Amino acid sequence: MKYQLIKSNRKTIAISFDRDGNLVVKAPLYVGNRDIEDFVRQKSEWIEATALRLKRAREKEAALRPRLQNTDALPYLGDTRILTVICEDRQRAKVISVPGRLILHVPYEADYEYRRSALEQWYRRQAQIVIGEKAREFAALLSVSYGAVRIKDQRSRWGSCSGRGNLNFNWRILMAPEPVCDYVIIHELCHLVHMDHSERFWKLVESVCPQYRRYRTWLREQGKSLYQI
Question: What is the distance of C-alpha 74 from the center of its chain?
């Protein structure tokens, strides 16, 4: 049975699956590989049952995922943009945004992945503009300064703040409701003051975003929906 082994200063062995369905085993540094393999074998029934359940969940999720064809609805800061796909004789994709609609121009041979990549690049460009503007606005409210704003595709984070004051954001938060997007930006800006999640940190977040608990819960419960493309 294949799995990724991660050893650390933990006290027990734990088994889990990552976002892509790969088996991950976390173990204490002092535990030998033979003992780890014995542990995994003992959990084989649970592993197989869980892997099957996760596979079915991914298949169901894939069935609900937009095919990136005409009339598909794509989320944007709490609103919906209806997709129009125009296939034509061209070399590169082009995305035009008009009120309530995204018009995607693609070559005749463009497949799903080509369309998805083109739309991701559009979301990334928008994220750089929108998040940049919001960061400046909220930074002024908090009286903080930051370095660069970088847009990434982080698999396990919506945002992060480096020790040098640079801010990183997952482009997918542009598909969340706008208040949720604002919360993520405010959250990272507050780390410029408190590089932890102490009570003081959360009080600072609350001073600018009084309903942050609601938005944090939304991300925990609905965040997976932002990975639809």
Answer: 16
